[in-house]
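Anyone up for a design puzzle?
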């Protein structure tokens, strides 16, 4: 698995799209090569983590995410791991064109009854970052069936139905156990419903992660990973004592909000603030030391804020 160095950065779909354009325009990599690399990474991942799951069904959409699925099926079939691959085309037209070019691939007859229990693993290539509207009723029924299958579900680039920018489920979405995503992590995989629907996210940046970072100047957001938090907390030398480790003032604790005050003050202590003072209402001040004896408390009245 190839994981980018900037793997805590999250990108929007327009940032990824513009970056792809930049790559193609500057001939850093061709469109076909990028698709090939994407499919190859997925093949490697599946061979490494799911080699015993031989009976594979791939749901194929009409965009390039669907193309990823067809390329992947070809690679898996050639991998000599005795895979049995079934392609399920969401769109009749793309089914027809693929049938002409890939006559040897088994295509599920959409008129028949779909029984997912005969398969070992599901690959979701219905929509990637090109999702631009809500999922219709017919597709929703299929997605419900996929989600109820209890099989491992690998979503390619994005769980289909999940908005890549805000993590919103667009009517319905595939609930992936794994998402294999390309070039950069997408904001929507880590926010709102994205966390629930993306499963374990693996990033394949094809060695272009640095370039993406440079190109975008600033990502949409960053993940607060434990290693980043550790870097932010200053190292405490042995001779240091409370007066040498900063002083935090927490103001709050209005009527009925005393808990928030204590939680905020405790957090300040926990991240290493040497002294923590709370400024709160008189009726709360006496309770502070009962809850957290290290805290210093001061009170204020309405009058203090009049001048
Ligand atoms: N550009 C490239 O060369 C690469 C693209 N890649 C893949 O391409 C994907 C993006 O491809 P596309 O831009 O073709 O987008 P998608 O493959 O996500 O699908 C777009 C198509 O789906 C239709 N669509 C969108 N929402 C729909 C809905 N709710 N109901 C029905 N139809 C809907 C659109 O009209 C369009 O025809 C990425 O997520 C990634 O998987 C990767 O292979 C890497 C290389
Ligand atoms: K997908």
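Challenge accepted. My sequence:
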């Amino acid at each position: 698995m190839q994981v980018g160095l900037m793997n805590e950065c999250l990108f929007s779909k327009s940032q990824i799209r513009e970056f792809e354009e930049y790559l193609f325009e500057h001939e850093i990599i061709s469109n076909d090569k990028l698709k090939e690399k994407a499919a190859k990474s997925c093949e490697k991942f599946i061979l490494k983590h799911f080699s015993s799951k031989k009976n594979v069904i791939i749901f194929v959409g009409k965009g390039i995410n669907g193309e990823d699925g067809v390329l992947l099926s070809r690679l898996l079939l050639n991998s000599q791991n005795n895979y049995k691959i079934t392609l399920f085309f969401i769109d009749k037209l793309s089914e027809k064109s693929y049938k002409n070019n890939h006559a040897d691939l088994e295509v599920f007859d959409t008129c028949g009854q779909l029984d997912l229990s005969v398969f070992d693993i599901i690959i979701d290539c219905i929509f990637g970052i090109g999702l631009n509207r809500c999922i219709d009723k017919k597709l929703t029924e299929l997605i419900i069936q996929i989600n109820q299958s209890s099989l491992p579900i690998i979503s390619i680039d994005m769980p289909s139905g999940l908005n890549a920018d805000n993590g919103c489920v667009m009517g319905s979405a595939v609930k992936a156990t794994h998402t294999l995503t390309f070039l950069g992590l997408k904001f929507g995989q880590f926010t709102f419903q994205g966390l629930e629907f993306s499963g374990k996210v693996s990033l394949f940046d094809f060695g272009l992660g640095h370039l993406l970072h440079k190109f975008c100047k600033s990502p949409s957001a960053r993940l607060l990973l434990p290693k980043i938090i550790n870097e932010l907390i200053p190292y405490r030398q042995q001779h240091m004592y409370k007066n040498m480790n900063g002083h935090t003032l927490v103001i709050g604790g209005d009527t009925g909000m005393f808990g928030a005050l204590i939680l905020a003050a405790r957090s300040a202590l926990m991240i290493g603030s040497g002294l923590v003072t709370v400024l709160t209402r008189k009726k709360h001040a006496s309770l502070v030391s009962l809850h957290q004896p290290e805290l210093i408390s001061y009170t204020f009245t309405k009058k203090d804020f009049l001048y």
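A detail worth pointing out: Residues 1-5 have pLDDT under 50 and may be disordered.
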